[in-house]
Every structure is written in structure tokens, then in C-alpha cells.
């Protein structure tokens, strides 16, 4: 290779960096002014670095026949910036690929593809924007609670959205309790540092995270807080403790002033609706005061199972979950009321039970009685895998089912729930931070006749938290239309 050709590679890279840099102010303005969340093939690009934006474009090689360049998407952003858009999720990567196929006038193309939100921007005063937000309270501040806080704080930047107003915890006993909790939000051994700044207000018992003022309330019970004292009204309480899982227990939250609805981040018991967003969120009504977001595993497998059921039909099957250890297990051998869970989580694979397979039927009744399930806890801190061993009603082959699931991940109504990866080198840590409920590993798919085995990765912390926020958005009436509806006909 000549010296000139070598230099050309670097020149091409710096040109891509420059183009990505030009995209950042457009992405930010669309988000903060218009409440438009932009992405590239499902990878959100708001608040991302130049390298992250280029990497999101690079991902397209795995799922399309050609590469996608920042040179293709910059014109899309520039044109969108002039259209006075209303609130929406817009995948500029899919739009760019479709526009390359169709050609023509870019502005007219966008008016066809995202027409319902063109010209729908309505400027609001700061007071009106505040009135359009929905107060959210996190009851409990463990693994899921802190990740929910991160997502809610991140998404507050666009306004007219969910607003995290308070965190309720028990008094930890330490003099610097508030600082300790702030530190756990600021630093995370799995998910890395908080993306922003956090200030502790000891006097007012509050955290200020990226400008969001979050009151920290100490309480011994869900019915012992008067939220209106802190200016919080008609709030949605997200209960992350798992302590109360039936209507009687969760109903205690509704006895506190300022609370209008409650959602549980665990499987609910009794008649509580277990909601898997993308599957049965249309079951949510204004009359529902208490809901459950089911479990991380149920959220991971139900969308993929629905896709397979719709296309091939499922006779029966078994779900084996290879799950990262959780805080419920012991770090070293010690007494535990559960079988095997008393043994060291960091040293052992531990067979345990899971109700996820049966819980699928609560969101997808057509599969009632068709699935069995078990779980193996393994010595990793995050990211799990579900192995779906299914007997189908139709014959299937590897290429056909992978093509179908790829299309579902990219172009269906389940595109926020199902992701798709086609690399022979991926491992569990590659999926830390994934906001999809589950990721189909195409290289691991096995099919023969009516027998199908799928491997589905999922970030059992972050992916699940993203699903919870989607449910809360719907409960709050904060709805984002998604464009394009389909990148292919």
C-alpha cells in the first residue's frame, strides 16, 4: 500500500469525525427544543460522543447489505431541523437507507415518512412545560432504582416528560447516608460512571443531578409519606423493593397524599396486570391504579416468543435461563431460606427455579401451559441469556428464522423490544447497557424441521429498566410516535 493510500485512510476518518461533530448540535437541538429522540438502527444518539455516533453507524453493517455513513445521515438531521417537528422517536439511520433506495427530494421524502409530526412543534413557556410533566417517585434505590434514576434524569432534558421528583429510602444509619447514596448513583461497577454531575444538598436532603432536583425522603412505610409537602402531586410511584407484590401491599402507596398510581418492578401477584411493554401494554387503562412490569426474564423472552408464535406457531417448549447472580444470593456460603442460594454466588453455578416461563402467559395468554422453565445463576454480575427450546407447528430453517427475526428487530412494532446481532465474537459484556428487552444471537440459532433453539441475550438490569420506563411513559400519557413505521414495505 502506498504512502498516499495510507494517509487517505486517516483523512477519511478525520472527515467522518468532522461530520459527526456537525451532527451533535442538531441532535441536541431537536431533542431539547422539539423533544425528538434520534437514533441509528435502534441506537440512541442523543448525548453521545463523536465516536459513539460513528460506532452506531458502523453497527448497520451487521444487519444491512451495505454500510451507513454519517455523510448519509447528516442531511437527514439538517432537513429535520427545519420542519418544526413535534415530539417523536425518529430513526435517522433507517430513513437514510430508505432515502438512498428511493432518491428524490429529501424534504418531500421526510414529509411523507414523518408527516404526522411535521409542523407540530408548539413553543411552551417554562411554566407550561413544567405542568406537562408527570411527577415520578422511586420507592427503593437499589440496582433497578438507580438505573431508573439514570434513565429518567437523562430523558428529562427534552422537557414535557417524566420528572423524577423524589427517592424514598429507609434511613441507612450512617451520618453521611445521603452522600453514600449519591456515590452509588455516581459510580457503578457494571454500568460505569453517571453521565453528568451530581450535587448533594445535605440541608434540604436532596440530590441535584444534571439540574434535576430530587428530594430524598426517609420513611418506614409506603403509606407514611405526604408527598404534597414537597410539591409532588398525582405522582406515579415505582416500587423497586419487591417487598409488596400484591394489591393489598402495593395499595398502601395510594394512601399517601400525592400518589395517583403505582408500578411494581417485579412480577405481581393475584389480579395485578403484569405488563410487558410492546406485548400487552394496550391492556393498560386509566382505571388501573396498580400495575406490574413483570420480570426481566419475562420481558426478554416474551417479545421473541410472540414473534415466533405469530409466524410459525408454538406447540410447546422449554426456557432455560442462564442468569447473572443477584443481591438475593450470598457472596460466600451462608444460610439462605432458598434451596442452593446459600452457596457462594461468586464461585458457583447455581440451579434455581424461575417463574418466567409460566409468567409469559400473563402477558401472552396464547402460550398458557405450553412452556416450562428453569434457571442457572452464574458468577457474572450482569447480562443474562435465555435459551428457548421450541417445538413449532411449521418447519423452519436457520436462514429463514434469522431473516424473519432480523426484520422484526429492525422494522416491526417490536423494534424497541427485540434486537438482533450476527457476530460470531460477541460475549455477555458486549450487551451491558442494552436498552432492548432481548437480543437474538443469530450465530447461535439451531433449527431442524419443527424444532427451533434460540439464544437471547439481555441486560437484566438496564434493558429491564428501559422497559419499565416505557410502561411508566404510557401510564403518564407521554407517548412518542416512532418513525419510520417500516423501513421496508
From TrEMBL:
It is an enzyme of class 1 (oxidoreductase). The keyword Oxidoreductase applies. The keyword Transcription does not apply. Its EC number is 1.2.1.-. InterPro entries: GlycerAld/Erythrose_P_DH, GlycerAld_3-P_DH_AS, GlycerAld_3-P_DH_cat, GlycerAld_3-P_DH_NAD(P)-bd, Glyceraldehyde-3-P_DH_1, NAD(P)-bd_dom_sf. Residues 134-296 form the Glyceraldehyde 3-phosphate dehydrogenase NAD(P) binding domain. GO terms for molecular function: NAD binding; NADP binding; oxidoreductase activity, acting on the aldehyde or oxo group of donors, NAD or NADP as acceptor. Gene3D superfamilies: Dihydrodipicolinate Reductase, domain 2, NAD(P)-binding Rossmann-like Domain. One of its GO terms (biological process) is glucose metabolic process. Keywords: Oxidoreductase. NCBIfam families: GAPDH-I, PRK08289.1. Belongs to the glyceraldehyde-3-phosphate dehydrogenase family. This is Glyceraldehyde-3-phosphate dehydrogenase.
Amino acid at each position: 500500500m502506498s504512502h498516499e493510500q495510507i494517509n487517505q485512510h486517516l483523512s477519511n476518518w478525520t472527515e467522518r469525525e468532522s461530520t459527526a461533530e456537525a451532527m451533535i448540535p442538531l441532535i441536541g437541538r431537536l431533542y431539547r427544543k422539539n423533544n425528538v429522540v434520534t437514533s441509528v438502527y435502534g441506537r440512541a444518539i442523543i448525548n453521545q460522543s463523536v465516536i459513539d455516533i460513528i460506532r452506531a453507524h458502523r453497527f448497520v453493517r451487521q444487519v444491512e447489505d451495505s454500510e451507513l455513513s454519517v455523510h448519509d445521515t447528516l442531511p437527514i438531521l439538517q432537513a429535520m431541523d427545519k420542519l418544526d417537528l413535534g415530539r417523536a422517536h425518529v430513526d435517522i439511520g433507517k430513513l437514510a437507507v430508505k432515502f438512498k433506495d428511493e432518491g428524490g427530494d429529501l424534504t418531500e421524502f421526510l414529509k411523507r415518512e414523518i408527516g404526522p409530526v411535521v409542523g407540530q412543534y408548539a413553543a411552551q413557556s417554562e411554566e407550561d412545560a413544567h405542568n406537562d410533566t408527570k411527577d415520578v417517585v422511586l420507592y427503593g434505590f437499589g440496582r433497578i432504582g438507580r438505573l431508573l434514576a439514570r434513565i429518567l434524569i437523562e430523558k428529562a432534558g427534552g422537557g414535557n416528560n417524566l420528572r423524577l421528583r423524589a427517592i424514598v429510602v429507609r434511613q441507612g444509619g450512617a451520618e453521611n447516608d445521603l452522600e453514600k447514596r449519591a456515590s452509588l448513583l455516581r459510580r457503578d461497577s457494571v454500568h460505569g460512571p453517571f453521565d453528568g454531575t451530581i450535587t448533594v444538598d445535605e440541608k434540604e436532603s436532596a440530590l441535584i443531578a444534571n439540574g434535576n432536583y430530587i428530594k430524598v425522603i426517609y420513611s418506614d412505610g409506603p403509606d407514611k409519606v405526604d408527598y404534597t409537602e414537597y410539591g409532588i402531586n398525582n405522582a406515579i410511584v415505582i416500587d423497586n423493593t419487591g417487598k409488596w407484590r400484591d394489591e393489598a401491599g402495593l395499595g398502601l402507596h395510594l394512601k399517601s397524599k400525592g400518589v395517583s398510581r403505582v408500578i411494581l418492578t417485579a412480577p405481581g401477584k393475584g389480579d395485578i396486570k403484569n405488563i410487558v411493554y410492546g406485548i400487552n401494554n394496550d391492556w393498560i387503562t386509566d382505571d388501573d391504579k396498580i400495575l406490574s412490569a413483570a420480570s426481566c426474564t419475562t420481558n426478554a423472552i416474551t417479545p421473541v416468543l410472540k414473534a415466533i408464535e405469530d409466524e410459525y406457531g408454538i406447540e410447546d417448549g422449554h426456557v432455560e435461563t442462564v442468569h447473572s447472580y443477584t443481591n438475593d444470593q450470598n457472596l460466600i456460603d451462608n444460610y439462605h431460606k432458598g434451596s442452593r442460594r446459600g452457596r457462594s454466588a461468586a464461585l458457583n453455578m447455581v440451579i434455581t427455579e424461575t417463574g418466567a416461563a409460566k409468567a409469559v402467559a400473563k402477558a401472552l395468554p396464547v402460550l398458557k401451559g405450553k412452556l416450562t422453565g428453569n434457571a442457572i445463576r452464574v458468577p457474572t454480575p450482569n447480562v443474562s441469556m435465555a435459551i428457548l427450546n421450541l417445538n413449532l407447528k411449521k418447519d423452519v430453517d436457520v436462514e429463514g428464522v434469522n431473516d424473519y427475526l432480523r426484520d422484526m428487530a429492525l422494522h416491526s412494532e417490536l423494534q424497541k423490544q427485540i434486537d438482533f446481532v450476527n457476530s460470531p465474537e460477541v460475549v455477555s459484556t458486549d450487551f451491558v447497557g442494552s436498552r432492548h428487552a432481548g437480543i437474538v444471537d443469530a450465530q447461535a440459532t439451531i433449527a431442524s424441521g419443527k424444532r427451533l433453539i434460540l439464544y437471547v441475550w439481555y441486560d437484566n438490569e438496564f434493558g429491564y429498566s428501559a422497559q419499565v420506563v416505557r410502561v411508566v411513559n404510557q401510564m403518564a400519557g407521554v407517548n412518542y410516535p416512532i418513525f419510520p413505521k417500516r423501513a421496508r414495505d
